[in-house]
């Protein structure tokens, strides 16, 4: 298995700074709750909040959609729920990557029932070639080709989350 760099640390830094600036402008005077989808989004979320200069709160939700395979099962299971109520709050759902859209669709449906004041999605990576269901991405970092990627929080069989850039895996 070989790793090939796809998005460098410098590219990540620049794009995330821009996302942070846009979010700060859009939420001026508000106090949004950023909901990180575990586990893949934790590195992105950690960098993103440091580029936002309005007061933010952070919570996490954990879902399972892939197991250890590199193709979507289509089955989404809630592993860990939020700790706080989002009723009446401005929520930004922070995802690592959107592929088929099934995970995000499930999460949006689930969080909407809790009556937030607003709910938008910020995804670092958009792999839209295999999209099965339309999902609204208000903020997106990079559109990438249909390759399985790792690093910067994203794993393959729980490994490679600590690679500081985004790589793609070439099966040999
Ligand atoms: P979807 O439900 O949109 O097909 O997949 C979303 C989830 O699948 C992501 O949150 C992520 O956990 C996983 N996933 C999709 N594509 C990739 C990929 O290229 N690399 C990794 N590591 N995970 C992926």
Task: Explain how this protein is built.
Helices cover about 20% and strands about 30% of the residues. With about 170 residues, it is α/β, with parallel strands linked by helices. It has one domain (about 10-20, about 30-165): 3-Layer(aba) Sandwich (Rossmann fold), CATH 3.40.50. Helix 1 packs across helix 2. It binds guanosine-5'-monophosphate (5GP). Guanosine-5'-monophosphate binds next to strand 5, helix 3 and strand 8. Guanosine-5'-monophosphate binds near residues 65 and 95.
Summarize the structure.
This protein is α/β, with parallel strands linked by helices and about 170 residues long.
Please report the distance between the alpha carbons of the first and last residues. 6 Å
Spans of at least 5 consecutive residues with low confidence: none
Biggest beta-sheet profile: 6 strands, mixed
Structural class: alpha/beta
Task: Quote the CATH topology.
Answer: Rossmann fold
What's the total helix number? Answer: 3
Radius of gyration, whole Å? 15 Å
Distinct ligands, ions and cofactors found in the model: guanosine-5'-monophosphate
Looking across the biggest beta sheet, what order are the strands in?
4-3-2-5-6-7
Give me the oligomer status. single chain
């Amino acid at each position: 298995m070989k790793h090939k760099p796809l998005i460098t640390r410098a590219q990540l830094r620049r794009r995330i700074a821009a996302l942070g600036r846009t979010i700060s402008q859009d939420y001026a005077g508000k106090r949004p709750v950023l909901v990180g989808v575990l586990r893949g989004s934790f590195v992105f979320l950690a960098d993103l909040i440091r580029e936002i200069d309005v007061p933010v709160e952070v919570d996490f939700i954990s879902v399972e959609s892939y197991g250890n395979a590199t193709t979507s099962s289509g089955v989404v299971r809630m592993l860990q729920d939020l700790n706080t109520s989002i009723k009446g709050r401005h929520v930004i759902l922070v995802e690592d990557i959107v592929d088929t859209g099934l995970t995000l669709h499930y999460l949006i449906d689930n969080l909407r029932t809790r009556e937030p004041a607003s709910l938008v999605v910020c995804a670092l990576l958009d792999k839209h070639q295999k999209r099965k269901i339309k999902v609204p991405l208000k903020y997106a970092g990079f559109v990438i080709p249909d390759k399985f990627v790792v690093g910067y929080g994203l794993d393959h069989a729980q490994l490679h989350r600590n690679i500081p850039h985004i790589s793609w895996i070439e099966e040999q």
